[in-house]
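Q: I'm building a small set of examples for a reading group on sequence design. Run inverse folding on the following structure and report the sequence directly after it, with nothing in between.
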């Protein structure tokens, strides 16, 4: 992500997440970005990107793919899913965002959960920020922090 307001906002939420995660028994947070595939065909690009993303997910991670065709849980439901996953002994959560051509069917099949931030298509820079904000919001819900108000 290039320098600018989106990156600054992402960094703000990441800093908050890193500070709160240990008190909730959550593993350290790692944000990684990968180069977009240079393949000529969209199907090939999606397949190449899926392999890279799935290989980067920690071993045994609960994989959550972000895709406009996924479910749209409430923030409370999302927080409870993170809590249940943590409590079941899963070592990590991996949130995967595909490239501009979307997600490969293999990645969608490999994901334990597919979540949408709505039916609209969002730029990847904003999806990263929205994912970070929702992860932080879920953590504040679990911590009983007043950030989330209904």
């Amino acid at each position: 992500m290039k320098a600018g307001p989106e990156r600054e906002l992402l960094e703000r939420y990441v800093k908050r997440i890193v500070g709160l995660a240990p008190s909730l028994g959550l593993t350290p947070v790692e944000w990684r970005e990968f180069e977009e595939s240079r393949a000529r065909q969209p199907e090939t690009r999606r397949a190449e990107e899926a392999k890279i993303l799935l290989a980067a997910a920690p071993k045994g991670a609960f994989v959550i793919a972000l895709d406009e065709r996924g479910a749209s849980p409430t923030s409370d439901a999302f927080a409870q899913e993170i809590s249940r996953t943590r409590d079941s002994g899963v070592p990590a959560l991996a949130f995967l965002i595909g490239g501009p051509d979307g997600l490969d069917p293999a990645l969608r099949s490999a994901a334990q959960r597919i979540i949408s931030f709505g039916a609209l298509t969002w730029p990847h820079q904003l999806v990263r920020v929205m994912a970070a904000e929702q992860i932080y919001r879920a953590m504040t819900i679990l911590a009983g922090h007043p950030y989330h108000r209904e």
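The chain has one domain: 5-32+41-143.
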